[in-house]
Amino acid sequence: MIGISFYLQDPHAETQIIHAANLGVKKAFTSLHIPEEKGDLVKRMITLLKLSEAYGMEIHADVSLNTLDHLGISKFTDLWPLGIKGIRLDDGFDKETVISLSKVFSLSLNASTLNEEELLAVLGGGVEPESLIAWHNFYPRPETGLEEEFFHEQNRMFKKYGIPIFAFIPGAGSKRGPLHEGLPTLEKHRLMNPYAAGIELIQHVEEFTLEIKERRIICWRI
Fold it and tell me: 65, 122, 123: which is closest to 95 by C-alpha?
């Protein structure tokens, strides 16, 4: 499974979307709460979403409690008619909100922060495990990525409930600003060759989806 990431203020986003689409890419990831992004973000988002939709791409967006103010919208369901069909919830969402949003969107949970008690609360609210994705964070700042032991502990928890897992490794292309230090899930992968990092995760983790950030994303379901 191959996908691409794009960001609202990346001047090359259109080129990346078209190039990826011509290679058969059908999934894309974007973030809707990057603090340094300024300007008419909704207009820019609509432009990129329409382009993605025209090429048959399914869009998943990272959102936080700041997204509403960031985009100037009143509620998360306003994202649906704009073309966002899947959302990944950052920290701060209560159980009731998670359950409510799961009735509208394909839902991804924060695999790097959610504990088992919180996960069981979501499942106890009637959300089916097979409709969820456990999606790890990526970490722009050096020395903030996950340690391997904790990463595997989290993965074991989600696999126990049959929830597929997404993780990130940094790409080999130009790095996203402002730090330009890569966007890995595991800190040990920050400076590693993307192919080597991907092979290592394949060797250690079963049934997860791997994503390469910056410029391109490569996703493998093992």
Answer: 122
Q: How far apart are CA 94 and CA 153, in angstroms?
A: 23
Show Cβ contacts of residue 194 under 8 Å, excluding neighbours closer than 6 positions: 169, 170, 171, 172, 212, 218
**φ/ψ of residue 217, rounded to 5:** -130, 135
Structure tokens at 156: 């074991």
Per-residue pLDDT tens over the stretch 52-62: 999 999 899 99
Sheet of strand 27-31: strand arrangement: 208-213, 165-170, 132-135, 106-110, 86-89, 58-63, 27-31, 2-5, 217-218
Instruction: Tokens for 96, please give them.
Output: 């009731």
Beta carbons of 136 and 170 less than 8 angstroms apart: no
- The answer to whether residue 212 scores a pLDDT higher than 70 is no
DSSP, res 39: S
